[in-house]
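From the methods appendix. Each design record in this collection lists the tokenized structure first, followed by the designed amino acid sequence. Records were kept in a plain field format so they could be parsed without special tools. The example shown here is representative of the layout used throughout.

RECORD:
FOLD TOKENS (417 positions):
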């Protein structure tokens, strides 16, 4: 198995060169080329349809990154677009609320186990930030124990400039799946911890996605109660994907507060902090939460229509069924290839990581993602993938074929010695 020729990315690279003059780094955060394979991945996207994206050079990709999660249906969804256009005719930015706010909040309260009240915001970072502020306001305590990625705000960014040490010291990280380690931090910081925030599924960087060990989430719930701290589930990724009510519904453990977003509106910028009324009422007077754009209605209308489609078409059942088939076939491909790699994740969110059996594991990873992108499969080396509703059975078969060929290339050129 030989390498595929490199794709033509001339226009995209030229635009990126221009962008670096216009903006720091050309683009922000995880979109920067070093988070993919530099020189191999497109930077600028022209359009999308179904489960595909097309870059400015005309390359058509099966997209299993799905905008890092918001695209649960597909690109260019007619029903959602029409609902949004209709709302545009009524106006959408008053900074005062429109009736759809109540409708969407009632919908979320019905769907999500922890939701008795709702605060609608724009981004996942907004939602986790609101939850943390409520936890601190409710307990009058400063420290947060965290497990997972929760956004870009000061309280949850480590190892980067621009964040004072005093703020960094108020957030303490603990490992996923280890109840003893969590209790050790709770005990060491007794009477100072406001809340625990965690992703229900473990998402360590470039490592297998960890499903909850038996009894783990229940154990976290019990520790939060024992030490009288607020339990927050960051369900920005898992909300409306693990189940309509999120991982808390699927695994049967209810937190005090939850952050949801991404898949809620199939790409429109809306998220929410939801939770039990006892905690949420702190936001009535004690803590301040406000934004000119939080009440914008286009995103709310998009969310209502997206939720309609998810329920009507039984989308979650479909992507779990087809995702399980994909995961099973992916596991078989890896086993047959003999390449030292680990398949992980849940059916809607599969992932493949390369085992650190020798010093060449990073070369294998780079070669794998080079070969898959050259076969027009858009997946990310450091982030789990997604199954979208509009990925056809043919798309998923083509994706598996691309992965199989990439693994055969690695087996030939990067053997374990």
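DESIGN:
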């Amino acid at each position: 198995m030989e390498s595929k020729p490199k794709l033509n990315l001339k226009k995209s690279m030229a635009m990126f060169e221009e962008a670096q003059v216009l903006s720091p780094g050309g683009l922000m955060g995880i979109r920067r080329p070093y988070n993919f394979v530099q020189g191999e991945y497109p930077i600028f996207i022209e359009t999308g349809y179904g489960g595909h994206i097309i870059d400015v050079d005309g390359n058509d990709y099966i997209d299993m990154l799905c905008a890092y999660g918001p695209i649960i249906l597909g690109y260019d969804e007619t029903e959602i677009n029409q609902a949004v256009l209709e709302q545009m005719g009524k106006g959408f930015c008053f900074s005062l609320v429109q009736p759809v706010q109540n409708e969407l909040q009632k919908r979320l309260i019905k769907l999500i186990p922890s939701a008795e009240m709702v605060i609608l915001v724009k981004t996942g970072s907004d939602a986790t930030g609101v939850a943390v502020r409520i936890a601190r306001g409710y307990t009058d305590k400063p420290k947060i124990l965290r497990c997972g990625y929760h956004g870009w705000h000061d309280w949850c960014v480590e190892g980067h400039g621009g964040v004072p040490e005093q703020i960094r010291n108020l957030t303490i990280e603990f490992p996923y799946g280890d109840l003893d380690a969590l209790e050790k931090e709770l005990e060491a910081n007794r009477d100072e911890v406001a809340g625990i925030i965690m992703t229900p599924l473990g998402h360590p960087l470039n490592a297998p996605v960890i499903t909850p060990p038996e009894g783990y989430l229940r154990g976290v719930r019990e520790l939060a109660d024992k030490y009288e701290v607020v339990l927050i589930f960051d369900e920005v990724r898992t909300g409306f994907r693990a189940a309509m009510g999120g991982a808390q519904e699927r695994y049967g453990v209810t937190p005090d507060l939850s952050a949801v977003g991404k898949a809620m509106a199939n790409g429109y910028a809306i998220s929410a902090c939801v939770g039990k009324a006892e905690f949420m009422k702190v936001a009535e007077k004690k803590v301040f939460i406000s934004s000119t754009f939080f009440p914008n209605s286009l995103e709310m209308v998009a969310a209502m229509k997206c939720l309609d489609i998810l329920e009507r078409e039984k989308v979650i059942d479909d992507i779990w069924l087809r995702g399980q088939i994909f995961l099973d076939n992916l596991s078989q491909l890896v086993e047959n290839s003999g390449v030292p790699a680990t398949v992980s994740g849940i059916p809607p969110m599969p992932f493949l990581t390369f085992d650190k059996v020798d010093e060449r594991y990073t070369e294998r990873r780079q070669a794998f993602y080079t070969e898959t992108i050259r076969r027009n499969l858009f997946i990310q080396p450091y982030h789990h993938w997604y199954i979208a509703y509009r990925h056809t059975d043919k798309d998923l078969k083509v994706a598996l074929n691309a992965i199989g060929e990439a693994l055969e290339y690695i087996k030939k050129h990067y053997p374990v010695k």
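APPENDIX NOTE: Residues 71 and 266 are 5 Å apart (CA to CA).
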